Amino acid sequence: MNMARSVFCRAVGVFQLSRTSTLLTGTRSYSQTEPEPEPLTVRQQSNGIRRIILNNPKKRNALSLSMLESLREDILTDVHRDDLRVVIISAKGPVFSSGHDLKELTSAQGREYHTKVFHTCAEVMTLIQDIPVPVIAMVNGVATAAGCQLVASCDIAVATEKSTFATPGVNVGLFCSTPAVAIGRAVPRKVAMEMLFTGTPISAHDALLHGLISKVVPEERLEEETLAIAQRVCRASRPVVALGKAAFQRQMAQGRDAAYATASKVMVDNLALRDGQEGIRAFIEKRKPVWSNTAEKAHD
């Protein structure tokens, strides 16, 4: 995906409007202000760590078009600022995400709307892999269909022991073809096919065994463990991490020889960075590196 194009393709986001209605009873009138709707996602940022929380537990954090657009906006906002180092995606409630909102996928919405839903979803999933900072999924509960796709698309995923993962679309007549893109690149082929053909959930421990997630932790330690990973990422040089993430994604799509050619060139480019040379000097001098966190070159 062209990153320059994706950065400029920003969603409008979710705007909150308060409406006032007047109720008339006999000769007396009452002014009643409707409460503002909860935002579909909540974005917070502190010390280099951006938290994005799926915030629609009543609808099982379904990835409706509005939810996807809100998530896209939260990912893209100031994504190139030096003070953003890592993103954590989590969810409110017992369901991380149940996938697409099936009410949006009926014939009443039509083919054009359906196309927009899946185009936006694919854009969000690729953005997660294309942005220059690592993205961590923090999962406490059920992740199904496109929700499972979201987990698989993240660079790192930490889940509680009670979390489960599934692609049950086949059971409602909608095969999880787009989730299969991310899941099929995260787990062995036959594991992916069993998940897709049967819709049977797998446990967090099986998800760990097959490579869908990075770590399984007790529920009470989920936040602590996830933040510990994020804080370790923050200790590294931002441009070095960005260069490495982009190179990893690129070489994974290549054959062995092309992958080595790509990775070798990136190593040379890494050495040309000011932070690349600073890290080597710090190691030789037995001190902690002082990162510039800029893409400034040490040499051509």
What's a quick, concise take on this entry?
The chain contains eleven helices and twelve strands. It is α/β, with parallel strands linked by helices. Helix 3 (110-130) packs parallel to helix 4 (146-153).
Description:
- It contains 11 helices and 12 strands.
- It is α/β, with parallel strands linked by helices.
- The strands form 3 sheets. A 6-stranded mixed β-sheet has the order 3-4-5-7-9-12, with helices on both faces. Strands 6-8-10-11 form a 4-stranded mixed β-sheet.
- Mean pLDDT is 90; it is low at 1-31.
Biggest sheet strand order reads: 3-4-5-7-9-12
- Give a quick account of the main beta sheet: strands, pairing sense, barrel closure: 6 strands, mixed
For the CA atoms, what is the radius of gyration?
22 Å
Percent strand equals: 15-25%
Give the proportion of residues in helices.
40-55%
Determine the mean pLDDT: 90
Low-confidence stretches: 1-31
Give me the number of helical elements. 11
Q: Would you list the SSEs in sequence order as H and E?
A: HEEEEHEEHEEHEEHHEHEHHHH
Shape: globular
Determine the N-to-C terminus distance: 28 Å
Class by SSE composition: alpha/beta
- The total count of strands amounts to 12
